[in-house]
Amino acid sequence: MTAAAQNYEGPQPPIIDVHFHGALGAQPGAQPMCPNEPGFAASDPATQEARNGWVKVACSNPINPVPPGEYLKAVAADMKRLNVTAVVYGDANSLPKYEEIAPGHIIPGTSFRAAGRDGFRPVEEVDKDFASGQYKVMGEIGLQSMGISPSDPSVDAYFAIAEKYDIPVAIHMGTGGSGRANISNPKFRGAMGNPLLLEELLAKHPKLRVQVMHAGYPMIDNMLTLLQENSHVYVDIAGLIWSYPLIEVNRYIQRLVEAGFEDRVMFGTDLGESGWEGLLPYSISIVQNAEYLTPQQKRDILFNNAVRFYRLDPSKLGK
C-alpha cells in the first residue's frame, strides 16, 4: 500500500457503509482534519489540557468540514457518486431526512439510550419501535462510554428485544477517548470495550447477531478469540480506519483477514457530527488500496459480508 491512501474515484460497484450516523450538520466549530494522524500527545494535568489528544500534523489533503446547511446535500452526492448504501443510526427526526436525500440507500437503525442523557429509553417504547419494522438494526449501542458491560443485567431486556424480532445489534467496543477520556468522557472505560465481555450476552441470547463496532480495536487477540467462538459475530472497521496511523490500521485489518475471518469484516466510516463528509471516499480508498487484500476480499469487506450479515437482497442495492 502507498504511504498515503488516495481517494478512490473510479467506477463503483455497490458499497455498504455499516456505520453511519444520522447527523443533520456539522458540529459548531468543526475543524479540518488530517486522517490517520500519527499518535497521541502526552499532557500535564497541571496545564490547560485539550479535550482531544491527537498529535497535530500538517497534511497535503486535509478533510474539511462541510459549510453550514450543506452537509446533507454533500453526503447525498457522495453516496450517489460512490454507489453507497448506508446503515444510518438515528431517530424519528433524522432518519426521514436521510431517506429523503438517498431513497433506497438507507437502512435505518436506532438505539435504546436516552437522547442527551445517561440513561435508557423505556423497554416498552423500544419494543414498539422494533415490532413496527421501522428500524432494521439496533445501534449504535454505546455502553462503553457509560462504563457499562454489554452483558450487564441492566441492559439485557433490550438485547432480548433484538433477539425476539431477529434484529442485528451494533455495539461500540474498543476505540474512544481520543487520548483524553479522563477529560472529555470520565465514564469511559477501556475495559468495557473488551470483546470477550460479549460472551455472557451471546450465551444468554444464542440467536443474536452482533456487529462489533470498531472491531474491538486495539484488542485484536480477544477479538479473534470471540470470532473463533461465535460464527454470527461480525466486525466493522469504522472509525479506526481513518483515526489511527495507517500502518497500524492495515496491520489490524490484515490480522483479522489472515486469521481466517475475511467473511466477517465489514466496511464502515463512523461518519457523523464531525461534518467531515470527505471521510467516505477516503475510507473506501483505504480498502481499495490495501495490497494485502485480494480483489475478492475487498468486495467482501465493502459489500458481500454486510449483505450476508443483514440478510439483504443484493439485487435491490446499488440502483
Q: The CATH topology, please? A: TIM Barrel
- Tell me the distance between the termini: 31 Å
Number of helices: 11
Low-confidence stretches: 1-6
Word description of this protein:
The chain is of the alpha/beta class. It has a single domain (15-30, 66-313), classed as Metal-dependent hydrolases (TIM Barrel). 33% of the residues lie in helices and 12% in strands. It contains eleven helices and eight strands. The protein has helices at 71-82, 95-101, 123-131, 156-164, 181-184, 198-204, 220-229, 240-243, 246-261, 279-288, 295-310; strands at 15-21, 84-89, 106-110, 137-141, 169-172, 210-213, 233-236, 265-266. Strands 1-2-3-4-5-6-7-8 form an eight-stranded parallel beta sheet, sandwiched between helices. Strand 1 (15-21), helix 1 and strand 2 (84-89) form a beta-alpha-beta unit. The model is unreliable at 1-6 (pLDDT under 50).
Ordered list of secondary-structure elements with their pairings:
Layout lengths: L14 E7 L49 H12 L1 E6 L5 H7 L4 E5 L12 H9 L5 E5 L14 H9 L4 E4 L8 H4 L13 H7 L5 E4 L6 H10 L3 E4 L3 H4 L2 H16 L3 E2 L12 H10 L6 H16 L9
Parallel strand pairs: 1-2, 2-3, 3-4, 4-5, 5-6, 6-7, 7-8
Helix pairs in contact: 3-4
In short:
The protein is of the alpha/beta class and 319 residues long.
Keyword list:
11 helices, 8 strands, TIM Barrel, disordered N terminus, 319 residues, alpha/beta
